[in-house]
């Protein structure tokens, strides 16, 4: 595992911008979880980097079940990110929602939960009738995790949703 981390550190210099950020995030994740979880995260990230996001998401879904519970939140957050990686299919949008739902529902006190709540609220807005659920998620985030760095974004999103005109039911009525 030490060799993998050294290789990743060396790779950061070869990337610019978001590529370097992705590698740094992966290294941080790998330092927080057990060895088996770190190897799973590395494998999934490599697959996604090679344009195989669907396979990366699949191995995370399968692999996370056999890992210790404390390793789940970082891997669920990784799965949600990889489900929308460049080159990922639109069908992975549902996988992203699944990862976020599990993370928010089963691990609300995890460090990943606030960002996942914001992402899940935004994800819900993509679905018909998801505004109320998104508002609820944003309000819960703001009230339960006011110290989180994503709260300003959540407040802006909530404000935007509250200023939105009511949806038309197709017959000219809100």
Protein traits:
174 residues; mainly alpha; 0% strand; disordered C terminus
Could you explain how this protein is built, in words?
68% of the residues lie in helices and 0% in strands. The termini are far apart. It contains nine helices and no strands. By secondary structure, it is mainly α. Helix 3 (35-49) runs antiparallel to helix 4, helix 5 runs antiparallel to helix 6 and helix 8 runs antiparallel to helix 9. It has helices at residues 2-12, 18-32, 35-49, 53-64, 72-82, 92-106, 113-125, 131-144, 151-163.
List the helices and strands and how they pair.
Blueprint: H1 2-12, H2 18-32, H3 35-49, H4 53-64, H5 72-82, H6 92-106, H7 113-125, H8 131-144, H9 151-163
Helix pairs in contact: 1-2, 2-3, 3-4, 3-5, 4-5, 5-6, 6-7, 7-8, 8-9
Helix content: 55-70%
| Main beta sheet | none
Query: What is the gyration radius calculated from CA atoms?
Result: 18 Å
User: Uncertain spans, ≥5 residues at pLDDT below 50?
Assistant: 168-173
Oligomer: single chain
Helix-strand string: HHHHHHHHH
End-to-end Cα distance, whole Å, is: 57 Å
Number of strands: 0
SS-based class = mainly alpha
Mean pLDDT: 85
- Helical run tally: 9
Q: Indicate the proportion of strand residues.
A: under 5%
Overall morphology: globular
């Amino acid at each position: 595992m030490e060799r993998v981390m050294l290789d990743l550190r060396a790779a950061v210099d070869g990337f610019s911008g978001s590529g370097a950020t992705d590698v740094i995030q992966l290294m941080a994740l790998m330092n927080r979880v057990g060895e088996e979880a770190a190897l799973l995260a590395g494998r999934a990230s490599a697959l996604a980097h090679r344009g195989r996001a669907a396979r990366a998401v699949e191995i995370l879904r399968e692999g996370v079940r056999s890992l210790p519970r404390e390793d789940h939140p970082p891997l669920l957050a990784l799965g949600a990110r990889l489900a929308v990686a460049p080159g990922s299919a639109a069908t992975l949008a549902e996988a992203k929602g699944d990862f976020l739902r599990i993370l928010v529902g089963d691990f609300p006190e995890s460090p990943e939960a606030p960002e996942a709540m914001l992402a899940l609220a935004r994800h819900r807005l993509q679905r018909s009738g998801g505004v109320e659920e998104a508002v609820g998620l944003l309000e819960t985030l703001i009230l339960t995790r006011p110290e989180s760095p994503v709260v300003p974004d959540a407040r802006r999103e909530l404000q935007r949703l509250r200023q939105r005109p009511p949806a038309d039911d197709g017959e000219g009525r809100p």
